Amino acid sequence: AKLPMNQAGNATNESLAAHLENIGMTATEWGRLIGIDRSTASRLLRGERIFNTAHVRKTTEALGLDTALLI
To answer: Which of 15, 51, 63, 69 is deepest in the core (most CB within 10 A)?
Structure first.
């Protein structure tokens, strides 16, 4: 199931992209960590694809983030 974008439009990808930059993680590394390919990871971070529940769950678990950051 796909999650709706939050009130700020592309805040999910913007928040995650900022967090990844802060911790020095590339889109490729993040994608590998949650089991998606580089292309999909890049499209998610650019807002060209919508995060699904698995992307959110795996990201929050892998990075120790609060789910509220991504929805």
So the answer is: 51
Q: What is the DSSP letter of 25?
A: -
Residue 46 CA to residue 41 CA, distance in Å, equals 9
Q: How far is CA 8 from CA 11, 30, 46, 54, 70, in A?
A: 5, 23, 15, 21, 11
Cα 23 off chain centre by:
14
* Pairwise CA distance, residues 65 & 56, whole Å: 10
- In the prediction, which pLDDT does 5 show? 46
pLDDT for res 71: 73
Contact 36/55 with Cβ under 8 angstroms? yes
